[in-house]
Design goal:
The chain is about 35% helix and about 20% strand. The protein is of the alpha/beta class. The strands form two sheets. Strands 1, 2, 3, 4, 5, 15, 16, 17 and 18 form a nine-stranded mixed sheet that branches. Strand 7 (about 120-125), helix 3 and strand 8 (about 145) form a beta-alpha-beta unit. It binds zinc ion. Zinc ion binds near residues 66, 258, 310 and 311.
Length: about 450
């Protein structure tokens, strides 16, 4: 990937996300991989590259709190199914079939899409095997990435190829974490990722917690996505899903729970009191008919929330713009117009999402000392005219097509709308070839 250099982004409309409603014409100076200065006018240091971004919006890179890039090759191939059959009939057989090369092709496609859509940081969950290929893709393409192999050692409908031995699964994660946590100058992090309660024995859940806490790595899992899943957890454990996870220690500031759609009052209180992070994934929840998480309530209770597209086969895109638009409109059905206003949505997609995935104070704002993760949006598509409130433009008008430049850790990873760190056409070709081979082996064609 490109080198971190001193760079002046000159003359954009800066939306620093340091305060709601603030936007001003100005310059942003990046140096040594961090934001060095933000002001109406800055003189470039002699060694600086000057990038003219006049007429563009300049804002912190977007953060997604829950994705699965490894699922990218099953995109458009797992339609019209609810969560449990979606997993058992399509996603798990697909994941079980993935070779090392196919994991790499899937991860490269997903990460390229994330970066070209302005997402500079993500919390990701892999499959049970070949996780090195996911980290290698994130390393090369230049995204800020927390990920981990997923853990599965029990459950109905789990193919033999994914069913792990508890101790071997945990040992594999520890090896991966030692290898990748803190790599690429801290851009890559390890997150211990038991898949969900239904596919993990109590011993595996407890071991995952012990592993994460021993090393100071994050925990990342799914909870209360679907009514049937939530019922099954209750039948199995006699506890609510969030409560069951908290019982074994999967709660707290180092934990990200995806979905949290079907919660009782005690579970909402538990999320708030433990400061557990929640990934709100409205696109996936609609596609799989899972339900609508009560985002306004989660925010009222002070729960730390970020947004996530989840997997390409349950969305079918990894676009933060799609999730922002949904988060800013869906909750009007229950809460009335403006239930979650555009500035709040933009906070969820930047600094609040960063806080939810353990990057608080380092990512999600354009302010001195923050990492140099920046997205520059052109204001040229029809839906961006005529310019108005910047948050309304970004949340309700913009799309991936508006992303012009993207910088991560001070390095340009997308330039003029094209991936700068790898050959985008080669990534697409590899993905098509791998998807065709998988379809053939899985009998999907
Ligand atoms: Zn997921």
């Amino acid at each position: 990937m490109g080198e971190s250099a001193t760079m002046l982004l000159r003359g954009g409309l800066v939306v620093p996300m340091t305060e709601r409603g603030v936007a001003f014409s100005g310059d942003v100076l990046l140096a040594g991989g961090t934001v060095s200065a933000v002001a109406a006018r800055l003189d470039p240091p002699p060694d600086a590259t000057v990038l003219d971004v006049s007429g563009c919006l300049v804002l912190p890179g977007f953060v997604q709190a829950h994705v699965h890039v490894v699922q990218s090759l099953a995109r458009h191939r797992a339609e019209a199914l609810e969560l449990l059959p979606w997993l058992t009939e399509r996603i798990w057989p697909y994941e079980a079939a993935l070779s090392t090369g196919e994991v790499a092709a899937a991860a490269r496609l997903g990460i390229a899409e994330l970066l070209c859509g302005g997402t500079t940081a993500a919390m990701d969950m892999g499959t049970t095997h070949n996780q090195d290929a996911v980290f290698a893709a994130a390393d090369q393409l230049g995204i800020r990435f927390a990920s981990g192999k997923c853990h599965m050692d029990t459950g109905d409908g789990v193919p033999a190829g994914l069913l792990e031995d508890c101790d071997a699964s945990l040992a594999a994660a520890e090896e991966l974490g030692v290898r990748w946590h803190g790599a690429a100058g801290g851009r890559l992090r390890y997150a211990v990722a038991p898949r969900f309660v239904l596919s993990c024995s109590p011993e595996l859940l407890a071991g995952a917690v012990a592993l994460a806490r021993r090393h100071g790595w994050q925990l990342h899992t799914h909870t209360s996505e679907n009514v049937r899943e939530t019922q099954l957890v209750h039948e199995l454990t006699g506890r609510g899903n969030v409560a069951c996870l908290a019982d074994v220690g999967i709660a707290g500031e180092d934990t990200v729970l995806a979905h949290a759609v079907h919660l009782d009052d005690a579970e909402v209180a538990l999320l708030a009191s433990t400061r557990t992070g929640v990934a709100h994934c409205p696109g996936a929840n609609l596609k799989l008919a899972s339900g609508i998480a009560d985002l306004p309530r989660l925010l009222r209770e002070g729960i730390r929330v970020g947004l996530g597209a989840d997997g390409p086969p349950c969305n079918n895109r990894l676009s933060i713009f799609h999730e922002m638009s949904l988060a800013g409109t869906l909750h009007n059905l229950r809460g009335g117009a403006g239930a979650v206003d555009a500035w709040t949505v933009l906070e969820l997609a930047t600094w609040r999402g960063a806080e939810a995935i353990g990057l608080g104070g380092r990512v999600g704002r354009l302010a001195p000392g923050y990492r140099a993760d920046v997205v520059v949006l052109a204001v040229e598509s029809w839906a961006m005219e005529p310019a108005g409130d910047p948050a309304a433009m970004i949340v309700h008008g913009a799309a991936d097509r508006d992303v012009r430049h993207v910088v991560v850790d001070g390095a340009v990873v997308v330039r003029d709308g094209a991936l700068a760190t790898a050959d985008g056409a080669a990534i697409r070709r590899a993905a098509r070839t791998a998807a065709a081979s998988l379809e053939h082996r899985l009998g999907w064609t």
